[in-house]
Amino acid sequence: MEEVTVRGVCPEDLERVTAVEAVCFPAAEAATRESFQERIAAFPEYFFVAEVQRGLIGFINGCVTNSPVIFDEMFHSTSYHIPNGENLTVFGLTVIPEYRKQGVAAQLMQHFIQTAKNTGKRKVILTCKERLVPYYESFGYAYDGISASTHGGAQWFDMTLVLKP
Ligand SMILES: CC(C)(COP(=O)(O)OP(=O)(O)OC[C@H]1O[C@@H](n2cnc3c(N)ncnc32)[C@H](O)[C@@H]1OP(=O)(O)O)[C@@H](O)C(=O)NCCC(=O)NCCS
After folding, report:
1. Taking a C-beta distance cutoff of 8 angstroms, is the pair 76, 65 a contact?
2. Of 2, 11, 17, 100, which is most buried, counting CB atoms within 10 Å of its CB?
3. Considering only the top CATH level, what class is 5-162?
């Protein structure tokens, strides 16, 4: 397998991040270029990309909040980012199809969790589709039931990784 590097996002990644998102999510769920531009400016320290020699193949990002769960407004405005908040959210974890099932998303997630630990967060929280519940459980996330989120018209499930009680 090719060597995969995980590094912090930079403004030059904007076009490629937007393209990867569009390949991986239905249009109603995909974040827009404008949204990524805002996120890269607002919380670059919680936005990581996975790269091989030919370029960017996936990424993970999220804001910081005091809320125990993700709510839909967060996806649309970085004004909900509270830099010194307690919990780190996962807005999206994405790997292009050609590089899936090789542990790239796991590498991104482990890096994200380690960042949450290094910055003293209490929890990492995410919402996911039902089919991914067991995948996130493999990182230690607990299933918290159906989310209030209706992002993109889909049903979502809340999951929480507790780092500090
Ligand atoms: C979900 C997603 C990020 C997973 O990316 P990925 O890089 O394939 O993830 P991983 O390789 O870490 O794990 C995927 C599976 O491959 C398995 N796997 C990991 N390394 C492997 C290897 N070397 N050989 C065989 N299988 C492997 C994992 O155990 C996991 O198995 P599971 O599906 O039974 O749980 C990717 O499919 C994606 O971008 N999907 C579309 C967007 C999406 O739904 N994102 C999540 C929304 S929150």
Report:
1. no
2. 17
3. alpha beta
